[in-house]
Amino acid sequence: MKGYLYAFASAGRWSAVVTISPEVDLAFWLDAEFRRTVEEMASGCGGEGTGKRQYGKAEERQNGEAATWPGGGREGRLTDGAEAGRSGLADVVLLLDEPLPLGIAFAAAERFAAKARRVRGEARAARLLRACARGAELGGGLRGTLDLFRIFGREGTARRVRRYTAVRWDRASGMREAARKLAAAVCEAADALEGRALLRGEAHALLGVPARRSAAFVDAALQLAALLGRLRLGSAVAGWRRRRCRRCGSGEAHMHRTPCLACGRVCAYCEACLMLGRSRECALLVSGIPAGGASGRLRPADGLPPVPVRLARRGLSPAQSAAAEAALSWLESPDDGGSRAFLIWAVTGAGKTEMMFPLIESVLARGGNVLIATPRRDVVLELEPRIRRAFPGRTVAALHGASREKWTKADITIATTHQTIRFEAGFDLVVIDELDAFPYHNNPMLQYAAEKSLAPGGRRVLLTATPPAELRRAAIRGRLPHARVPVRHHGHPLPVPEELRIPPVRELIRRNAVPDRLKQAVLASLSRGAQLFVFVPRIADTGPVASLLRGVCPPGTAIGHTSSRDERRTETVQRFRNRELRLLVTTTILERGVTIPRSDVFVLDADSPLFDEASLEQMAGRAGRSKEDPHGRVYFCAPHATRAQRAAIRRIREMNAIAAAGGHIRMEAPPGEVRAGGLRR
Ligand SMILES: [Zn+2]
Ligand SMILES: [Zn+2]
To answer: CA 137, CA 106: separation in Å to the nearest integer?
Structure first.
């Protein structure tokens, strides 16, 4: 879209602003009565700490948060003192009569702000305004020197500047009516958009366009909200020399330039967050302003029941309790120990969801809200009913690609990691589940989004069984506060993988033969009544391996296979969950999330580079999760041992040892360790 650029003088100082609704700005700066009416009404509807004016106050709001507050609110910022003079009104407004593509308009306003101090007199201000617009149009690579500045000034003279000193309404009552309607919409918009960063179309949908209101009216309300400091407006992709997506944080590497119908130029869009709608240079991004200001809005924890009482209510195991207590004391302490994140490093099957409950409870009880971000949609769907049961009377929203309740405001929001891109400064506690899992790990966009979704003073809790190396190091060296949960909720040790030396899968398929030791292990698992996860690294091998195993299993054994390319994947997994399938050949898509009460795990081609240490640990973690069958069996099958296999086994033993030393293990002689004597058979 396009926006208008204007400059105004107040108490002798010049400032430039971009508007998507020029009438609103003219009335705001030039009509005292309109200004008073909207300010009074809009100040009555916000929580404490809101209602600060955007212009001239940007620094104050940022308050040392610049690094974690993307966007920064600097676009079109006015210099301090601009609001002096007659109750913040302007003496004159100079408006460029031709609208500019939004990204260019905002860039031009920034250029103007950088030079505004030196401007004296309307003629010079008008010249600077045109020069800035022209300079921004040329793409920013040429900014700066006085030389270029003069050249631009001359070239830009074609664009006309209109001069306004007053607005005249048809009737005074018409003005008051308009002011009232707009101010009411400002309140609604500020409330609805709090904690969010939405593209214009999304903000419009949220505010009832077209059913309840026209797009023009909502644009006017958004613009007025920005003038009143209740929202921030900017271009979704910003920057002069290097473009950056303000929604997802991606840089030049993710920018694509295409001819654009909306602005009539070649303009850049961000392909990194494309699945959530196109974030463009000329697209408007509307960001909410957090209530409570930069100091955070959580009440102190003094009024809450003692920690042991709160933990006892949740029926946690001693190991879960200890970790939850450590996390709680960090969360409730005014001093975060130099880190806004806390790592809960809990073995697979430790019951990390239950450990979140006391943390969520603490934040809700202190007036805050919570976001749980998780990599996969299945997990969102699985978590939702559990969270609802655990927090009756609280509102819960579940967001994923296909969910309808995109705009629901809730005490607890459960979302796929991608959905967090639409939030900004919205949550006092952000829990990141399966932090090391695809798509979050090594994805700067999602990490940026998770950081961005934190409200000022908010904190993050990271949950994982297999922290990436850098986090592990930070935790061990004391830079990242953390708690380890070395034992499963049922108190039995993790099954230690056994290594079976067999030829590569391709070889087995070619020879159409299953080695005897693999066959014996599979039959033993079947005869003890277990269901079998058989992991293979390549999608293409799932089918052939399933037929191969069919040849050695007793007749009638139901065997299935699935992968990310399987269209009936959900159905196949459901049949496995229902015990209709005894054996499922799968890729790593099932390495997390799916829990089968009595199950054994076979990892074929365990030496494949596609299986790293974390992935091997996660796959092994599928076995022995239930109280009824805590000693599942795990086999790493491959011609060779690899570093990853050895590391995964070492880490599993290490966790068992820590658990034993901490007195958390129920069994004196875990069968996994006894069987370990038979390694490298
Ligand atoms: Zn983006
Ligand atoms: Zn465009």
So the answer is: 11
DSSP code of residue 626:
S
Q: What are the residues whose beta carbon lies below 5 Å from ligand 2 (ion)?
A: 260, 262-263, 267, 282
Most confident of 134-143, 371-380, 474-483, 495-504: 495-504
Express each pLDDT in 196-226 by its tens digit. Answer: 999 999 999 999 999 999 999 999 999 999 9
What are the pLDDT digits (tens) for 368-385?
A: 999 999 888 878 888 999
My answer on whether 514 and 637 are in the same domain is: yes
* Ligand of minimum distance to the alpha carbon of 449: 1
Distance CA 590, CA 563 (A): 9
Dist. CA 259 → ligand 2 center (Å): 7
* Domain match, 455 and 522 both: no
Q: Which of 485, 508, 539 is the last residue of a domain?
A: 485
Across residues 619-626, what is the average pLDDT? 95
Q: What is the dihedral of CA 214, 216, 222, 227, to 10 degrees?
A: -150
Output the domain CATH number for residue 318.
3.40.50.300
Q: How many domains does the chain have?
A: 3
Across residues 100-104, what is the average pLDDT? 91
**Ligand 2 centroid – CA 139 distance (Å):** 13
Query: Dihedral sign, CA of 11, 15, 17, 22?
Result: positive
Please tell me the distance between residue 218's alpha carbon and the centre of ligand 1 in angstroms. Answer: 24
Q: Which ligand is nearest to the CA of 271?
A: 1
Give per-residue burial for 264-276: e unless 16+ CB within 10 Å, then b.
Answer: eeebbbbebbeeb
Ligand nearest to the CA of 100: 2
Distance in Å, CA 421 to ligand 1 centroid: 8
The 3 state secondary structure assigned to 131-182 is: HHHHHHHCCCCCCCCHHHHHHHHHHHHHCCEEEECCCCCCCHHHHHHHHHHH
Give the span between the Cα atoms of 470 and 251, in whole angstroms.
Answer: 23
The predicted structure's pLDDT at residue 648 = 96
- Please tell me whether residues 468 and 508 are part of one structural domain: no
Q: What distance in angstroms lies between residue 275's CA and the mean position of ligand 1's atoms?
A: 9
Q: Who wins on pLDDT, 52 or 87?
A: 87
Spatial CA neighbour of 288 closest among 250, 234, 239, 245: 234
Parallel, antiparallel or unpaired: strands 370-374 and 427-432: parallel
For residue 186, the CA-to-ligand 2 centroid distance in Å is: 27
Using alpha carbons only, how large is the chain's radius of gyration in Å?
A: 30
Q: Report pLDDT digits (tens) over 431-460.
A: 998 888 766 677 888 888 888 999 988 999
Domain that holds residue 350: 306-485
Q: Report the percent of the chain where pLDDT is more than 90.
A: 65
How many CB atoms are located within 10 Å of the residue 167 CB? 15
Q: Give dist(CA 267, CA 258) in Å, integer.
A: 6
* Ligand 1 mean position, distance from CA 248 (Å): 4
Which residues have CB atoms below 5 A from the ion given as ligand 1? 245, 247-248, 250, 270, 272-273, 279
What distance in angstroms lies between residue 5's CA and the mean position of ligand 2's atoms?
17
| 235 DSSP 8-state letter | E
Q: Kindly list the distances between the CA atom of residue 60 and the CA atoms of 65, 295, 451, 559, in Å, as whole numbers in the listed order.
A: 10, 11, 20, 63
